[in-house]
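Chapter review: from sequence to fold.
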Amino acid sequence: MFIKGVNLGNWLVLEKWMSPVLFEGTDAEDEYWLPRKLSREVYEARIKIHRSEYITERDFVTIKAMGMEAVRIPVPYFVFGDREPFTGCIKELDKAFNWAEKYGLTILLDLHTAPLGQNGFDNGGICGVCRWSKSPEEVEFVLSVLERLAERYGNRKGLWGIEAINEPVMDRAWKLFDVPNRYPAADKDMAEGSGPCTLEFLKDFYVRAYDRMRKFLPEEKYIVIHDGFELLAWKDFMQEEKYVNVVLDTHQYLMMAEAEGCEQNVEAYQEYIREHYEKEIQEMEQYFPVICGEWCLFNSYACGCDTKGGRSVLNGEEGSRKEALGVQEKKQIYQAVAEAQLNAWKKGSGYFYWSYKLLTDTVNEKGWIGWDSWDLGRCVDFGWFPTEEKDNRE
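The token string follows.
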């Protein structure tokens, strides 16, 4: 197995930095607060238009033409429309399966958010709040969502697999990202008691999620578990015969390498990728198929400034005011880090780029220079990312 794909980020799970216009007129920083800062009519209208326009049938055709085989679709815990005041998105998901099957793509469904937060990130749905793992009722709710997704899509030809939960944060990552300060909570009382998930909790949750989903998922469909940013911690886990087609997902971003102390130049990035990504993925492939479910070409060097681990203007960072590098220079940097990372993923069982598209205006909005590298469409168009077609021509 080797799967090549791209994430449909910011479609069904919103991230303010990827689509700032959706949050206009509010001080909301995340999806939890957006419907609470808008009237119901305005919120529902914005969401309806966004979902209908952001990803369409045409995008599935484009993704296939890029040489991709799959899409990873982040979905929220309110996907079924049973958590007020949010609007569910099961109709959009149904359409995605029809498009994928029509154009020969498969789908990794990724439960991207959890009530009360599994990481405290903006992409976890609520900034600064990380209490999900401490709430048995909400853990059970998430298990019920996974079970319902498995029941609805388990026998669809277009289903590649289901990921139990995205980026649950454990202790080391909680400290590395400095979650409470990087993602300050809008309601301090809600954030009271927040903290990282434990390895013990996650292991228990994944076993329960496996059992609940496997009731409806044929054995050839994959069940994906995220490493909690601790790739090497899972060697003794789910190795019994009963666990079939379990895939380990790791997310590797160069901005995290920078936060770990990697110098901001091409040679340092390449060495870090070889010494960490390649070696660790190769080591863990003995236990699980390993995919890199999120990665991209973004790095501070190409931005022309230290982004302090990928902090943006939304985090209070100024960013570069003008391009520090020429077009050709940037192209060489991105091609070099693309090649190094793609070589690393080949030690495993596949990858999904984050993300397919970005609605941030990196030209007219100050401080976003270098952030276009999060957008796979732009990376392909600029010649930064190699596609199958180009490989074949060469």
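Two observations follow directly from the output. The CA atoms of residues 125 and 175 lie 19 Å apart. Confidence is low (pLDDT under 50) at residues 389-394.
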